[in-house]
Amino acid sequence: MKLELRGITKRFGALTANDRIDLTVEPGEIHCLLGENGAGKSTLMNVLYGLYQADEGEILLDDVVQHFQGPGDAMGAGIGMVHQHFMLIPVFTVAENVMLGHEQTKGGGRLDVAAARKLVIDISERFGFSLDPDAIVGDLPVGVQQRVEIVKALSRNANVLVFDEPTAVLTPQETDELMAIMKQLKDEGTSIVFITHKLREVREVADRITVIRLGKVVGEASPTATNAELASLMVGRPVELTVHKEAPNLGDTTFTVQDLSVVDHLGQLVVNGVSFEVREGEVLAIAGVQGNGQTELTEAILGLQPHTKGSIKLDGVELVGSTPRKVLDAGVGFVPEDRSEDGLVKQFTIAENLMLDRSTGAPFVKAGNVQRGFRDEFAREKSQEFDVRSQGIESPAGSLSGGNQQKVVLARELSRELRLFVAAQPTRGIDVGSIEFVHKRIVATRDAGIPVIVVSTELDEVVALADRIAVMYRGGIVGIVPASTPREVLGLMMAGELPAGAAA
Predict the structure, then answer these.
(1) Keywords for this entry (predicted)?
(2) Are residues 452 and 322 in the same domain?
């Protein structure tokens, strides 16, 4: 089936998320929609899927104009979507999830679960999915849950499949398996729209590439284009993609975690007996699929997890039981994984956000009064040093782009005397130009002799920044390995396996 989008425009108030976008996907083609987070890719696909109504433009399937009032209309026309955040009911079986929304019934109005089970088995055998129709979805690994989403779409005779950032929660091996599935679907004539910002994946499977920047199509590219060429199209300027760093100049071991366990508010053990150490002048990267305890580990280091056992020592001083204020005062800099919720007060100005964790005394506060002159001079200096692009230091932090918000957080945290720097998902949701800047600052911090912990689900980022890599799985550390460890070995560890030769 041929898909055409003509002049699609979608506005949210004063924001134009999609600006007269044209896109054509031929039958049996994998067409990659490439762009940074916030470029308008997902908005465009939500228009296609009927979740949003376009303000201007039209959708055509095999040259026939379509009028979708909702996802049901899109699915009825042969469009399926595999969402970044799965649309599955965890307590339902695979078969129940697949039949949800277009239930078949038999005598007496009863659900025909047997028909749904047969449909799952037939599609699974066709693509080698090995799905158990009676398995509870919540018990399945993330990669298998994604296959359930694909079976759901195919069960409704989808001729056009949209994959929205499908690899965000997958291990490298699961990503490779998904690439193979996409190629098989293509060979059977399915048209695929693949949304991503990961350059390696684009070049792996795309037949054609359309690049979107700030809501507009800025060009098409060939899969043979280099990463640098694709990045330049995405950002609008040349970008240095390689992280340059010298061999570490290691100092003393000043940060240690011993037998650390964390129980969350539901009583679940989310960090289980974790131990590691970090030396001065070293980056320890913590890798793993999202949701394996990384968030709770960093929160425990900051004193944000109340139910923590074990030991966390910085310069020989025990931090377990300390308040976040005492942890910060001990010299810990922290970039949280969700800058909007935990890193900034969006209604506050840039200047106010830059003094957030230093609002209790000199030089920012004297006799209970904010020293506005000092604060504003500091803010102007740091905005320039960290290349924060804004209308001025009185601009609300919430008015900044994601990359500039992250620079404000970095500027605040790296402008203190640090003894440890912890950066959780430091480049999530920012453009490749800002990623380049963030990586340079992390390496500079390490080169200044400060122990650094980077937590990231982006394996390329982990490998680029790390001196050593600790891999987390289900709350524990599977092993700690050198940064030179092959990607396939790291992928196995992210799935819970400890390959021969890797240190537990």
Answers:
(1) ATP-binding, Cell membrane, Membrane, Nucleotide-binding, Repeat, Translocase, Transport
(2) yes
Give exposure, 161-173, as e/b (b: 16+ Cβ within 10 Å): bbbbbbbbbbbbb
Whether 228 and 154 share a structural domain: yes
- The number of domains in the chain is 2
Q: Which of 235, 264, 286 is the endpoint of a domain?
A: 235
Q: pLDDT tens digits, residue range 276-303?
A: 999 999 999 999 987 889 999 999 999 9
User: The domain containing residue 229 runs over which residues?
Assistant: 3-235
Burial call 409-418: b when 16+ CB within 10 Å, e when fewer: bbbbbbbeeb
How many of the other CB atoms lie within 10 Å of CB of 394? 12
Is the same domain home to 223 and 284?
Answer: no
In a domain, 366, yes or no: no
Q: What is the pLDDT of residues 419-447, one digit of tens each?
A: 999 999 898 767 677 788 889 999 999 99
Helix residue spans in 253-340 (DSSP H): 294-301, 324-329
- Kindly state whether residues 291 and 219 are assigned to the same domain: no
216 and 334 both lie in a single domain? no
169 and 94 belong to one structural domain: yes
Average pLDDT, the chain: 89
* 147 and 261 share one domain: no
Residue 455 in any domain: the answer is: yes
Across 331-351, average pLDDT: 90
DSSP annotation string for 46-85: HHHTTSS--SEEEEEETTEEE--SSHHHHHHTTEEEE-SS
Nearest Cα to Cα of residue 389 among 413, 374, 405, 410: 405
251/466 Cα distance (integer angstroms): 16
Domain boundary among 235, 267, 285: 235
CA distance 440 to 91: 44
- Give the HSE-up count for residue 58: Cα atoms under 13 Å, Cβ half-sphere: 8
- Is 185 within 8 Å of 445 (Cβ atoms)? no
Instruction: Report CA-CA distances (Å) from 272 to 42, 171, 286, 362, 435.
Output: 36, 21, 15, 40, 32
DSSP states of 434-474: HHHHHHHHHHHHHHTT--EEEE-S-HHHHHHH-SEEEEEET
Asked whether 66 and 59 are in contact (CB, 8 A), the reply is yes
Q: Is 417 left (phi over 0), alpha (psi -120 to 50) or beta?
A: beta
Amino acid in the structure at residue 280: E
Q: What is the CATH number of the domain that holds 486?
A: 3.40.50.300
Does the pLDDT of residue 504 top 60, yes or no? Answer: no
Residue 124 has pLDDT above 70, yes or no: yes
